[in-house]
Design a protein that fits this description.
Chain lengths: ~400, ~400, ~400, ~400
Amino acid sequence: MTIPITPTQPTGHEQAVEAARGVAAVLAKDALERDRANAEPEAEAQLLRDAGLPGLLLPADVGGGGLGWATALRVVREIAVADGSIAQLLGYHYVNVANLWWVAGDGGLARWGRASAAGQWLWGDAVNPVDPDLDLLPDGTGYRLSGRKSFATGVSTGDASVVAGAVRGTGEPLLVVVPRGAEGLRPGGDWDNLGQRLSASGSVTFTDVTIAPDQVLGSLAPDGATPRSSLVTPAIQAVFGNFYLGIAQGALATAREYTRTISRPWLLSDSRSATADPYVLATYGRLVAATRAVQALADEVGEHLDRADAAGAGLTWEARGELAEHIAALKAVATDVALDVTGTVFEVTGARATSNAVGLDRFWRNVRTHTLHDPVAYKRREVGDHFLNGTHPPFTLYT
Amino acid sequence: MTIPITPTQPTGHEQAVEAARGVAAVLAKDALERDRANAEPEAEAQLLRDAGLPGLLLPADVGGGGLGWATALRVVREIAVADGSIAQLLGYHYVNVANLWWVAGDGGLARWGRASAAGQWLWGDAVNPVDPDLDLLPDGTGYRLSGRKSFATGVSTGDASVVAGAVRGTGEPLLVVVPRGAEGLRPGGDWDNLGQRLSASGSVTFTDVTIAPDQVLGSLAPDGATPRSSLVTPAIQAVFGNFYLGIAQGALATAREYTRTISRPWLLSDSRSATADPYVLATYGRLVAATRAVQALADEVGEHLDRADAAGAGLTWEARGELAEHIAALKAVATDVALDVTGTVFEVTGARATSNAVGLDRFWRNVRTHTLHDPVAYKRREVGDHFLNGTHPPFTLYT
Amino acid sequence: MTIPITPTQPTGHEQAVEAARGVAAVLAKDALERDRANAEPEAEAQLLRDAGLPGLLLPADVGGGGLGWATALRVVREIAVADGSIAQLLGYHYVNVANLWWVAGDGGLARWGRASAAGQWLWGDAVNPVDPDLDLLPDGTGYRLSGRKSFATGVSTGDASVVAGAVRGTGEPLLVVVPRGAEGLRPGGDWDNLGQRLSASGSVTFTDVTIAPDQVLGSLAPDGATPRSSLVTPAIQAVFGNFYLGIAQGALATAREYTRTISRPWLLSDSRSATADPYVLATYGRLVAATRAVQALADEVGEHLDRADAAGAGLTWEARGELAEHIAALKAVATDVALDVTGTVFEVTGARATSNAVGLDRFWRNVRTHTLHDPVAYKRREVGDHFLNGTHPPFTLYT
Amino acid sequence: MTIPITPTQPTGHEQAVEAARGVAAVLAKDALERDRANAEPEAEAQLLRDAGLPGLLLPADVGGGGLGWATALRVVREIAVADGSIAQLLGYHYVNVANLWWVAGDGGLARWGRASAAGQWLWGDAVNPVDPDLDLLPDGTGYRLSGRKSFATGVSTGDASVVAGAVRGTGEPLLVVVPRGAEGLRPGGDWDNLGQRLSASGSVTFTDVTIAPDQVLGSLAPDGATPRSSLVTPAIQAVFGNFYLGIAQGALATAREYTRTISRPWLLSDSRSATADPYVLATYGRLVAATRAVQALADEVGEHLDRADAAGAGLTWEARGELAEHIAALKAVATDVALDVTGTVFEVTGARATSNAVGLDRFWRNVRTHTLHDPVAYKRREVGDHFLNGTHPPFTLYT
């Protein structure tokens, strides 16, 4: 039996990028209003599904798009131009769905791939290692999952989630699947932060959630990790770099529209329009040049992750380490540039663009919020340690 | 007859600074909630009056505090540590009240000084030259004032305002007084911007407001300007520099409290507490060092403005020009440092400080909004032109 | 008749990069001593010839390597890691030799290509438009060339040079070829600048130098320019971006060797070695991440220039303009990053690395000197104007 | 008996500043040539003596100028505008001479003060704790001093030096006086570094130098230190901040002269002169504004050090700590600004200013070299630790 590809499932890179741009155009229309409303991104998630974006990384033989990470990351970036939150939701999803095969191998794909592709499932996660571990109480052949995670992107909106817990007694860290609406699963709906407001990143509580044996994807224990099973960290960091970049590009595009149509030349300027002011021009130029460099690096990283993913079980620790450092560099420089761009665009639009009716601050809020996910100083240290000492950090959910 | 000094009127520098700190302590308690509510700052204005802060620049012989600009600016800075908006309201007031004697001389003080001191009046203004001129229609010995200003700080909350209009026919620019509640005066209540949300900076409409002859303070015509009558620009720019500085200091103090009491050490850090993390410490150090330099310059500027004010009618254009450049330098460097500090403090508190319950973004929002008042690139150009070519820019409301 | 390829002529990308690395390894050995000596780079030029690098852009059918700009730029970058001056010499050469066909078409190649390939000629130039024009006095069917250029890279060392002059009377700007040793050609030997000291960039004087008709490559008149004939500017700017990048990479590699082998941990550091110091690591990381982004952009630019070159006479102004902006962005961001890297590396090596025996400053000197070739502020303005207004600047030797 | 004040001994602040400016004017004439020659600064030292600058900190009752640190630091800054090396020489001298009374109390002054004032002695030092300790071998009632210091500012040129050694056996650290020309004292003459080339900072070797009991100033043991005896560190760091500032001011003044008289407007600029270019003006403005802030902080620090010095034996550890943090902030921000200014001035002068005949790089070389004395990251950490945790670091020769 072959799974019929849904009519909207993009199966080529350009087609996927076009689909993403279509979604972005819709999201852009009321991005500010939705940001204010801070509601669950249900409609936004449906837009993603309707465009066939959630399925694009899944192999064609389970009905997915069969596309690679270069495409997935580019799609995340395109969405971020319009809406950083939804880009985060989708980007995390790609990492979560890839964990089906990275952690669980072909079995994971066999068990969850077809339904996921057919339904264009969005996958959330609750794996944040900063909180105490969730408890997996052995129960028959499975477990009962209990505990709370303070931040859990996409669990509330996703069709299923990957969740990290520790087996009571042994402490073994396992990654398990929890479908939407599972009994005992209760999202907190309490994400009210400065930025990334629609990323469905609030807390989630698990109370005796039943985990059947086929819901167990595998172990996250560092000593059992393989280069492939630990791709989660470079992949999620690559997602970050891409949506920071997309947000910066969105800020520049939004500012450009404002400068062109609304900004007035400064009283003391010799220029007859804001679009001819020497300082406005040079500031745009500085920001655009820096953004283009990040864009080139992000494109390079996408191809690198593609190659690493394609290596499958043959991926070496050395190759995984080089990939991680490439991506860490992207994360570090994307952070610097996106903060600079989103904070500075006000200087090329002028004072009236601080009106809340304009909402030009949402780009900065999104970048400022998410770039704190893990401290950029430690990401710089990691890049520096690799350059200076040739080290690859041990696998953690941050390295 | 001597005007009795109200019991709370500070008459010494230290006393005034203490009073300001007392007000700041009250304002700090609910600064975030008030920022969200975006209401008219009526209660806040009353706090200022109760502390005797509005009267401190007025001469003792009309019942004021008889204090100078070094004190007034320092008071603005102290208020800004807690609440940038209210610091703006008070800082603009000081410039507006000084215009009574800078523009109108002893007559201005005679007509408005005693009531102002006795009532601890707050003065607003509608002088922004970016909008079209307000119209002063000659009417008997006075005028009828009509028109609209998009931004007018303190008019809605102030007890009186200084307003710039152009006489119909001759075009002569006049500065006139409009008391609160004057018939035909209608504040728009429409200031809903990113920052400085309680600064009462919305639009105001004037419809046939009667201006009696004694409400005319004098001409703002550049060719009639004297060094003293044109102190309005350096003074207001000095106010800006001081409240940017105070906001930066407030951001650092707020972040410090958070880091000390809530922040956790990073997972990959060797430090057992966030307060010992090498990157947290060095980042605080970099920001504090830069802020201290601005603080020293602001103190220097306060004394310089004091000397210029004390020179009275003897102030030369040369001396006024040197003052203006000193202050322009403060404005430029305070802008750079305050943006850096308020944007970076998140990196020393960590991701959880992006919760809207914390509201750490209000410092950045305040600085980002107001530093666009006039483009910092042009202020840098002014400083550079003076350094390189020895120029002093002609008097405008921005130079 | 086919021209035999010299044994050392690289004809593949990887082979050329390897050859460049071989030359760089030799140049690195005494880069500092040669920098100090400030001699004519005769031996260095010969190294380039021996490795077959000058011929690689020439078509295979005249005996060249038949390689493209992506390779040429990468070769320039590799040389710059060791020696920025020689990278400049070679990079300028590539643009000069390409002018044979960009400006003169197949005829230029026919007249000069075979000798150039066979002899691995290095081409210099005297085209700097900042100086007054050189004078081309009509003389029979040719001209006599006279005048002086203050800066003329590679004329003294090159086997031939392209020289811009204006025809007396008509003022028409022509590009002509002057072979080494031509009578009346006198290099000044007067380049004694802060950086790029071996780039043979001193003045040159022409006194009645005979220009035969076949030495005339064509007109540089803006109104006669075609997209292809005006590729000189984007190409030279791409060369700049690549050697700035290579110099930054060289600074990082040199610093790394020093930190690893000589630097000691700071007295007040908890780390037992400089290579474990948290600030040293994070600083390396910040610089490396920024450099990688520039590197990715430079690689992208190389491929873009390849495509534009391959389009030949079919290149449109629109395509030429997009290329120019891509390259302008590289130039701008490479400038910023290379200055930052080369100035900051001292902070990861420590005070003893300021010894002149170490010479770590040569990287900064090279970047600081050449990045002033044309002001980066105007390059930023150009990028900004394109982004904001969609403009492509008119062709000049700087845009 | 009163010591006659030498005719040139300044005894007032303004007089001293004037004297310093006079010396600076002489030094400026051939600063570049002297920098190149890298000779011992004998003539320069004599200029300082002739102007009465070395004696100004010594009390009037031993024949000194009786002036304070605010004056001494300002004099250092004025000299640095012309010549950073000589400013370093003089600044270190002030700290060394103050050690006579800070470490040895009235006895130190009694023994060395009169000769020092009468002869306008310059004091060098060899106290750098990075090298292994010098050996003080007990010998009768005194010692024999042996060993080597890699860096020892002013020992070769000074009339006497303070030298730190450790008593053999007990390890007690002592500060002793070694007069110029003492038998067994051999300066290495080996300071050939990037910057501060005339600061006489080379190595020095001691071979059985006789130290009589009255040459012992006292103990440097941390547990015996008093707030006063440990002022050496804040004082030397204040000296650093002042000469970094002076060098930045010198760079700006030198660039200004160049821009005004030599720079040409950029080809693509609308301005008819470089002095009207919008980017040139704004860049000067940015640098000047930042420099003025450092200047204000340096003035504040001078007064603070004056107060601490005046407190004498009554100085508390708390007051010493607050002083140290004030000065650490100056050191940190002066480093940042001086590096920025001295590296950026080339952008306001243009490419021709990279000629070695201009020598505009000497300012950057001086700042880049000396700011590595102790890593600025650790100075930032110290400032941050004080701000965040209220700590005062234990006394070391760096804190």
